[in-house]
Specification:
Keywords: Exonuclease, Hydrolase, Nuclease. GO terms for molecular function: 5'-3' exonuclease activity; nucleic acid binding. The longest helix has 35 residues. The protein has 764 residues and is α/β, with parallel strands linked by helices. Helix 1 packs across helix 2, helix 11 crosses helix 14 and helix 12 packs across helix 14. Strand 16 and strand 17 form a beta hairpin. It is built from 26 helices and 25 strands. It folds into six domains: 34 residues; 255 residues, inorganic pyrophosphatase (n-terminal core) (Alpha-Beta Complex), CATH 3.90.1640; 102 residues, Roll (Diaminopimelate Epimerase, Chain A, domain 1), CATH 3.10.310.30; 109 residues, OB fold (Dihydrolipoamide Acetyltransferase, E2P), CATH 2.40.50; 108 residues, Rossmann fold (3-Layer(aba) Sandwich); 83 residues, Orthogonal Bundle (Arc Repressor Mutant, subunit A), CATH 1.10.10.
Length: 764
């Protein structure tokens, strides 16, 4: 059967649009039966729990513990998957009358996964059966200890299986080599839910809200059984009576009827994760299981506070990590960055930021107080198997665990350099190509007039969206741009209105950086792709297209290599790069002339640029006085490679512009004092006026230019004026403002945004 025939069959038998039929086929769903199961999962989409390895042994041992009133301890994990896994099994065991408690490891004292000291404590405290959730397969020694002391262990886990499995009573794992489950990609909470289903001899629908949270939070593929669990779980969330979840949603200002997979991923999961990242995750289980509304609100408020703290820590450490990477003069295929006493709980998020901005697998480590041990987290790219890269070098480490895309580890600080070398070598072995960027999968090209509320509602049938089932991205044709503008307090969001023959459609791009005006001015030449969405405002539902990527003028960006070496500190090695050096500022060059090789090619000043010169590698040493100068340089010199150091000789972006109050304070002092000796008393004056010295000097320069002060041989006197003078007309004011804009665009932007800036300058 041809592709067209399959499409037509799906369309007719399923009663769906041609577009939805095409999208199903692209997902490998080619029969009406498969389409029905995908679009309308039911109880049959959830597999028999006894298809999992050792499920019968696990149930038998747990039931025996319940019958004998043995003390059961659930050993969980501190992330959202681990907390929901613990809550699921805890509630199920309570339902069957178990004597059950739980233990959530402390990230900072216990570390990830099984911990020998904790196992010893559980044994000493009278635990008679340990049931692990979302961990356990890496605890060979811990399980052996418990078993040798008469305490059985049932493992339920979904993480990578080590070569040597623990000798537990049962190992319930969807990828166990002795009995592979039909759907191997269950989350930890999914495995716990299967155990709960077996114990309760039914599908416990009241637990599905927790299953949805853990599965989405752990970024599991949303296909097959996971798709059914999350779809049913979202329905359960919209009707949840859990006081803890209701309190979390209230604090996040989310309407319960609007809950979907994005709510979980961007609101619920980060809040639950913040507990284990900043303090201890055990209160998370209490939050999810308590029936006390006051207690739930109390914990939820604590979660909100910790989540805010998490964001601040991530921002601070990310900034420091990027700075350390910029200072490293060696080019690596894998980022390894370490800092003193960085908060361990957020290192995984920081590593994700590094991956996002640099396109490289990244490890972020915190060196402990005593300076001997570095602990941290790693995040990878799809093309690099991080677990395999490190697993063969466990001799370097004191602890390690993880999977393809993420890991946690610790090692002696002295071995960080060796780990860096190992990872770079493993990247070469795996033939990691950093020039290959992840590409957006464009589903279809559709006309603007094909977009409708009915189409958007139909596309929602493909939800829940997530890993392996992404939200459809479209390109669009046959429209005219009606209007365009910038939005937001910082004017960093772009909006335009497009129209075919029918109603106009809003097109939105968030966080576009500093080139928004360029998009506004050239909106009709933007080629973009995006997702379909709706926006409800004052009771009216409007269609929106959320831009995922775009290009201006549909011009191919020149294939140049950009070496981002931006630095606020110059070193001799930076000035020994092969290439032709350019300086905007002759003063900067005069201070550095002695550091160059004798045969170095150097150009100082735009006026010395040749007409349409050509070089292999253009090395831009210092920061330009304004963006126009930077654009002139890039368009007057033809180059295949550009190395940007952009040393800021006298930076202004850290202090900015004086406030209106500061201008007024200096003016009032100036007109009321005569013969102020600036050479002698400038520092005292800055302290007295409580204004930074460089801002004071700048302010006096502006006042001198507009005639507010007179300066003769270093002595200043005020000169009152009745004329209305705009300080912004002063040459110094305009120059600083333009320098400030240049520094904000060129020095403070992240690497990806900076590279886009250079490309846009070249194509303009």
């Amino acid at each position: 059967m041809s592709l067209g025939e399959k499409e037509l069959k799906l369309q007719k038998q399923m009663g769906i649009s041609k577009l939805l039929a095409q999208l199903l086929l692209k997902r490998g769903i080619s029969t009406p039966e498969a389409a029905a199961e995908f679009l309308n999962p039911n109880e049959n989409s959830i597999y028999d729990p006894y298809l999992l390895h050792d499920m019968d042994k696990a149930v038998e041992r747990i039931q025996a513990a319940v019958m004998d009133n043995q003390k059961i301890t659930i050993y969980g994990d501190y992330d959202a998957d681990g907390l929901t896994s613990t809550a699921v099994l805890y509630e199920a065991l309570e339902q069957i009358g178990a004597n059950v408690g739980y233990y959530i490891p402390d990230r900072f004292t216990d570390g990830y996964g099984p911990n020998m000291e904790v196992y010893k404590k559980l044994v000493d405290d009278g635990t008679e059966l340990i049931v692990t959730v979302d961990n356990g397969v890496g605890g060979y020694d811990e399980v052996a200890y418990a078993q040798s002391h008469g305490v059985d262990v049932v493992i339920t886990d979904h993480h990578e299986l080590p070569d040597k499995l623990p000798e537990a009573v049962a190992i319930v794992h969807p990828r166990h080599p002795d009995k592979k489950y039909p759907w191997p990609n269950l989350a930890g909470v999914g495995v716990a839910f299967k155990v709960a289903s077996a114990l309760l001899e039914d599908i416990p629908q009241e637990l599905l809200d927790l299953v949805a949270i853990g599965t989405v939070a752990d970024l599991m593929p949303l296909l097959d059984e996971n798709r059914a669990l999350v779809k049913f779980g979202i329905m359960a969330l919209r009707n949840t009576q859990r006081p803890g979840l209701l309190a979390l949603l209230a604090n996040a200002k989310i309407n319960i009827d609007d809950i979907n997979e994005e709510t979980i991923g961007f609101a619920l999961a980060p809040r639950l994760n913040s507990l284990g990242r900043i303090q201890n995750g055990s209160t998370g289980v209490e939050l999810l299981t308590t029936l006390d509304e006051d207690k739930a609100k109390q914990i939820a408020n604590k979660v909100e506070s910790l989540n805010t703290e998490r964001k601040e820590l991530v921002a601070t450490i990310s900034k420091q990590a990027f700075k350390k990477l910029a200072e490293d003069e060696t080019e690596h295929l894998v980022n390894v960055v370490a800092g003193k006493d960085w908060h361990e709980g957020v290192l995984g998020i920081v590593a994700s930021h590094l991956v996002e901005e640099t396109g490289k697998p990244s490890l972020v480590l915190s060196i402990t107080d005593d300076g001997n041990i570095a602990k941290g987290s790693g995040r990878s790219v799809e093309a690099f198997q991080l677990f395999d890269a490190i697993n063969g070098h466990r001799d370097l480490l004191t602890s390690f665990g993880g999977h393809h895309m993420a890991c946690g580890l610790s090692l002696e600080e002295s071995k960080i350099g060796e780990l860096q070398a190992v990872l770079d070598n493993e990247a070469i072995k795996q033939q990691l190509d950093l020039t290959k960027k992840a590409q957006l999968e464009i589903e279809q090209t559709i006309e603007a007039d094909e977009v409708s509320l009915d189409l958007i509602e139909e596309l929602k049938r493909l939800a829940p969206f997530g890993v392996d089932n992404p939200k459809p991205i479209f390109s669009f044709t046959n429209y005219n741009v009606q209007s365009s503008l910038l939005m937001g307090q910082e004017k960093n969001h772009f909006k335009m209105s497009i129209r075919g023959k029918r109603a106009p459609i809003d097109v939105i791009a968030f966080s576009i950086g500093t080139h928004g005006q360029q998009l506004v001015d050239n909106a009709e030449n933007i080629e973009f792709v995006g997702e379909l969405a709706t926006n409800v405002w004052k009771g009216q539902t409007k269609i929106q297209i959320m831009i995922k990527d775009f290009c201006l003028n549909a011009v191919e960006i020149p294939r140049i290599r950009i070496n981002d070496l931006r630095s606020s500190k110059l070193t001799a090695s930076l000035l020994r790069t092969d290439g032709e050096f350019f300086f905007f500022n002759s003063t900067v060059y005069s201070k550095l002339a002695g550091y160059f090789k004798r045969d170095a090619k150097i150009i100082v000043g735009l006026e010395k640029l040749p007409e349409r010169g050509k070089v292999d590698n253009l090395v831009v040493v210092d920061c330009p006085p304004n963006l126009e100068s930077f654009g002139t340089l890039l368009n007057r010199i033809e180059f295949e490679e550009i190395t940007t150091i952009l040393y800021p000789y006298k930076p202004v972006f850290l202090t900015g512009m004086p406030t209106k109050e500061e201008f007024g304070k200096v003016y009032r002092f100036a007109i009321s004092h005569k013969n102020v000796d600036l050479k002698k008393d400038l520092n005292k004056l800055a302290d007295y006026l409580k204004i930074k010295k460089d801002l004071l000097i700048f302010t006096l320069q502006v006042f001198f230019e507009v005639g507010f002060v007179k300066i003769d041989n270093g002595l200043m006197a005020g000169s009152s004026s009745r004329k209305r003078i705009n300080l912004k007309d002063a040459p110094s004011y305009r120059a600083r403002q333009r320098l400030l804009e240049a520094e904000n665009v060129l020095l403070t932007s992240k690497t990806a945004e900076f590279e886009k800036t250079i490309s846009q300058f070249i194509t303009v």
